[in-house]
Amino acid sequence: MVTRPETGGWAPPVPGPPGAGTSSPPLSGSLGQGRGLALAGRTPGPCTPRRGSGGSRGRSPWRTAVSLRRRRRRASVDAGRSARPSVSERGLAGALTMLSRAALSTSRTLVPALGCLGSRQKHSLPDLPYDYGALEPHINAQIMQLHHSKHHAAYVNNLNTIEEKYLEALEKGDITAQIALQPGLKFNGGGHINHSIFWTNLSPKGGGEPKGELLEAIKRDFGSFDKFKEKLTTVSVGVQGSGWGWLGFNKEQGRLQIAACFNQDPLQGTTGLIPLLGIDVWEHAYYLQYKNVRPDYLKAIWNVINWENVTERYMACKK
C-alpha cells in the first residue's frame, strides 16, 4: 500500500494477488483534508475510468477535485492577465487620465473667469456732478463739454471695444492678440480711470485749502500747503507732451507723494500710489482757453479743486 504524500502528486496503484483486480481506493477522512488516503490496487471496475479514456486518468475523487480547483485557478489567472493592460498600455492610459484631469481642472478654473468677463457690464461715461459751464471763468464750458462728451466718451467706447476683443482672444487662446491689445487697454482704461477721478476733484465751490487730517499730512510731508502747491504745479507743468500731475498716497510708508504720469498711464497701476488729486495737462484740457500757456491753466485750476473730495479719498485709503 502506498500513502499519498501531503505535497500532492500521483501514486500508481499497487497490484494485488493475481486475478484479484482493483477496487476504488477507500477514503480516510474528508475529501477536502486529503489525509490518511490509501490506495488499493484492483482491476478497473465498470465505474472506474481507464487511462486514456478521457476521464480523470484513474485518479481518486480527491485528486480529481484538486485538479479541477487548480485548473480553475489557472483559468482565472490567465483571464486576469488577458484583461490586464500591458505596461505600455498602462502608461498610455495613465498619461491620458492625467491629461484629462488637467484639462478638467483648467476648464473649471478658466470657464468661471471667462463667464465673469462675458457677463460683465460695459463701462459707461459718468455724469458730471455740475454743469459744463459751472467752472467758469477758470475752465470754460466749451472745454468741459468737449473734454467730457468727446474725449472721455472716446476712452470709454474704445475700452469696451478692446475688452470684447480681448475676451475673444482669451477664449481662442490667442496670446499674440492678447499682447497686441494690451497697450490699447492700458491707454483707454487709464483714460477712463483718470478722468473719472478728475471730474470729482473739481467743483464750482472748490478752491482754498483742505482741512483736518489732510492739511496736517500735507504740512508734514511738504512743509506747508504753499510749498505743496508749488511742487505739484512745477511737476505738472514740466510733463513733456501729454500726461498728468498727481498727489498720491503711499500706503506702505503712510505718506503723501507727488508724481507725474505720461499719456493716460494710471497712477496706481504705474507707481503703486493711491490717487487723491489729479491734474490733466493734456492740451485738450486747456488749449481752447489758455492756448499753449500751460502755467496759466495750472494757476487757474487751483480755484476749483474740490478739497472735500480729495479729503474723502485720503481718509478712505488710510483705513
SSE blueprint:
Blueprint (H helix, E strand, L loop, with lengths): L1 E2 L34 E2 L21 H23 L3 H32 L22 H32 L2 H27 L10 H11 L2 H13 L5 E8 L4 E8 L4 H5 L2 E7 L6 H4 L3 H8 L5 H12 L1
Antiparallel strand pairs: 1-2, 3-4, 3-5
Helix pairs in contact: 3-4
Percent of sequence in beta strands: 5-15%
The low-confidence runs, each spanning 5 or more residues with pLDDT under 50, are: 1-57, 85-115
Instruction: Specify the biggest β-sheet.
Output: 3 strands, antiparallel
- Mean pLDDT, nearest integer? 78
Q: In DSSP terms, counting alpha (H) and pi (I) runs of 4 or more, how many helices? A: 10
Estimated helix fraction: 40-55%
The CATH architecture classification of the domain at 212-318 is 3-Layer(bab) Sandwich
What is the level 1 CATH name of the domain at 212-318? Alpha Beta
Compute the number of strand runs: 5
Assembly category:
single chain
Backbone structural class: mainly alpha
Q: How are the strands of the biggest sheet laid out side by side?
A: 4-3-5
Shape: elongated
**What's the CATH topology name of the domain at 212-318?**
minor pseudopilin epsh fold
Radius of gyration from CA coordinates = 47 Å
Order of helices and strands: EEHHHHHHEEHEHHH
Terminal Cα span: 103 Å
